Amino acid sequence: MRLLLVLALVGCATVSAYQSYAKEGVLAGDEPFTQAQLADIANRKATCPFIGSIVNQGLLAVGQTADKPLAQVSGVVALGNTGAGSTLGYVLKLFATGNHARQLGASGRLDQPVPANWFSLDFPGSQGSHWGHSGILQGNPTQLNTGRWSQADFDRLTAKASGGVLTTKAVGEFIGENIARDPKSRTVTSGGLLSVLLPDSVKLLGSIGTAALNVFRSPASATPQAWRQVTIGITKLLGDDNLIGSAGEFGLLLAFLENSPNSKGGFSVAEVTSMFARHQLPAGWNAWKKSALSWVKYTSELTYHARHRYNQITNK
Fold first, then answer.
1. Which helix (H) or strand (E) segment is 82 a member of?
2. Which domain holds residue 235?
3. Per-residue model confidence as pLDDT tens digits over 149-163
4. Model pTM?
5. pLDDT at 16 over 50
6. How many independent structural domains does the chain possess?
């Protein structure tokens, strides 16, 4: 129920087409970034296989300073929509504007709003960082700069491959195992599902529903602040359940790789390795279609398989 409600709003946001968000602003303190600095940002901060790759490869405009880097929302949309008929950039925009709307402040926390049409590249410590994550690219999700590479956790994922490919079921089971092995993770168990459906629905429709309706009725005239309010609310609800949050994150990866020539009977371990371990997009990535609807499909399928595996492990 929670997943269906969130995906329905995501669909509205995509159909309403985030095409008029805001023009890029000029950031005070911009500095040229060296390749070493971009690689460091990809390793310690931008702990997402797609964002980390495009930062490391210099494909995404990065502004401000190396200790508090920001990136352009319009840039990530353009890259996600590269390839004829691609719409995945709008989903990336949802995550960027919703989960990464705060940058490093004087307090040492992510508590300062980012300028319109920019998002923070500090992923650990952000709203989008959660317990029960894979452990592959980051450590403590509540602390800044905890990105790092974990070969052991990546091996847990690739051990589920067969014939050099990972299936949706395999990735979903990996997610369920991650949630089960982390005592700090939060997810709705089968037995407790009914007790949270109504409160979730009321929360969704009450806290952000009115704002969402206003934005979706007239997307072209909605202010950047209105978009930000809605996307923060949607992504927070998505991330409140760590299992669904993880499914949404891996759903992006699978939707990105879906139409790769190497995605035959599953998703190429070689291409997954390239993005996770080396921060390099696969060759030819800009030619194939990447669909927002595929993200919805894979997020739903991953949630199903992850929930099943989690229930098997925990006997719930």
1. none
2. 2-314
3. 999 999 999 999 999
4. 0.82
5. no
6. 1
